[in-house]
Amino acid sequence: MPFELLRSLVWMDYRLAVVFTVLCPLGLLIWAFVKNAQAISTLLIIYWRVASLLLITVYLLMTGNAVGLITGLMALLLIPLTLWFWADLNEEIEDQRGWLKLIFAAWRWATTLYCIGAILGQISTLSCVFSAVARASDRCQLWFQPAIGFGSIFHSDLGSTTVSNRLEFVAFIGLVFYGLYFLNFLTLRLSKKGRSATGF
């Protein structure tokens, strides 16, 4: 694939991620709270817990840590799973009527399709994680550029080694807590509640 085309696709992927995984679910959550749509609100709150891995991913990538490429793929896998996993919420949402349900359903399908497409497009980046030579290539470095651009907006001193190391440390702390929470869900919560979101 030509380098410039790949660059365009990488930046398009990040823009789509902002739309589908940040702006739309935030707007839907506010709308659901206003409409007192409990099932949709609950599902979106669970979504934000899961999608917080994307923020960790951005902070890892903005500091140049290739682990962010793995966590990014994991987030893309977990997001559609969590959108469709909860049987009780799916039933309650199915019983609802109105524009909120329609827009929510459209977003849920669009986000699922986006995540599948993004996984297929990013699976090749795993070579950037396990090979230092590949990681240093221009093609691999492309995947870090949008996160670095984001970091330069919110952390003007990102170029400082001290600041970069501090942000990387915070990202890893966040990843550890995320991993512990996820492990708790798999070992305790899932065995007791199954696909019921009650008490999640």
From TrEMBL:
The keyword Zinc does not apply. InterPro entries: DUF3177 (IPR021515). It comes from the Bacteria. The chain crosses the membrane at residues 12-34, 40-62, 69-87, 107-130, 169-188. Pfam families: DUF3177. Keywords: Membrane, Transmembrane, Transmembrane helix. This is DUF3177 family protein.
